[in-house]
Design a protein that fits this description.
globular; seven-stranded mixed beta sheet; about 240 residues; Rossmann fold; about 15% strand
Length: about 240
């Protein structure tokens, strides 16, 4: 009998579908990258997910975030994502956290219970803390590097953090991990040099807001999701 995962099962087999159904993944950051990660994981058959974000959908999210529509502006991102997940697959076990991940909130999470952690947050301190906590309990983690100020989605690559180049965020993370003697962290990064906002764009220049679009964050999110799915079914 056919079900919503029949086409996926034709590709990866029933054993892999069962692995995904039983897997537990945490996605930190439900924005331009994280939203597409969640979407792809749920449509692939993931059975258990934690979603973490303290933000609300705003009008500037409409250009790139899968949960952003005029009807969701002002709503909590994790609430909107939860509703979308349940509409795709009502059988998914969802735990949502309306909080930003920081060193002060890390105690809310038991990293040993996850089969995989996805870092789609923006802060360097938060990313480093996520990596440290996952390394303590040997939980796999994959981190999103810079997707802002980019226009070419074909330049994203999957690599160990030690093999990254060009990306300013990856350089900072690489240096900080070296100080902490942490190795072997899978990331998705771009070799495209970040574009500089036009000088006429006073808001971007003044507040250091990165430019973005509909295709770079989404492609990064889908690449991350594919890496997680492949790693989970090969265990």
């Amino acid at each position: 009998m056919q079900d919503q995962f029949s086409r996926t099962e034709l590709l990866i087999g029933s054993d892999a579908i069962e692995k995904l159904k039983n897997a537990h993944v945490a996605v930190f950051g439900i924005g331009g990258v994280g939203g597409y990660v969640v979407e792809a994981l749920i449509r692939s058959g993931l059975g258990n997910i934690d979603i973490i974000d303290n933000d609300e959908v705003c009008i500037t999210n409409l250009n790139r975030q899968i949960i952003a529509t005029h009807s969701t502006i002002g709503k909590s991102k994790v609430d909107v994502m939860e509703e979308r997940i349940r509409d795709i697959n009502p059988n998914v076990n969802i735990k949502k956290f309306k909080t930003f991940y920081t060193s002060e909130t890390k105690s809310l999470f038991n990293f040993s219970e996850y089969n995989y952690v996805i870092d789609a947050i923006d802060t360097v301190v938060g990313k480093l803390s996520l990596i440290e906590e996952c390394k303590k309990v040997n939980t796999p983690i994959i981190c999103a590097m810079g997707a802002g100020n980019k226009l070419d989605p074909a330049k994203f690559e999957v690599a160990d953090i030690s093999e990254t180049s060009v990306c300013p965020l990856a350089r900072v993370i690489r240096q900080e991990l070296k100080k902490r003697k942490i190795t072997k962290v899978k990331v998705v990064f771009s070799k495209e040099k970040p574009l500089k906002p036009p000088k006429s764009n006073e808001i971007s220049v003044k507040h250091q807001i990165p430019g973005s679009n509909a295709f770079c964050p989404s492609v990064m999110g889908l690449i991350i999701a594919s890496e997680v799915i492949n790693d989970l079914i090969q265990k």
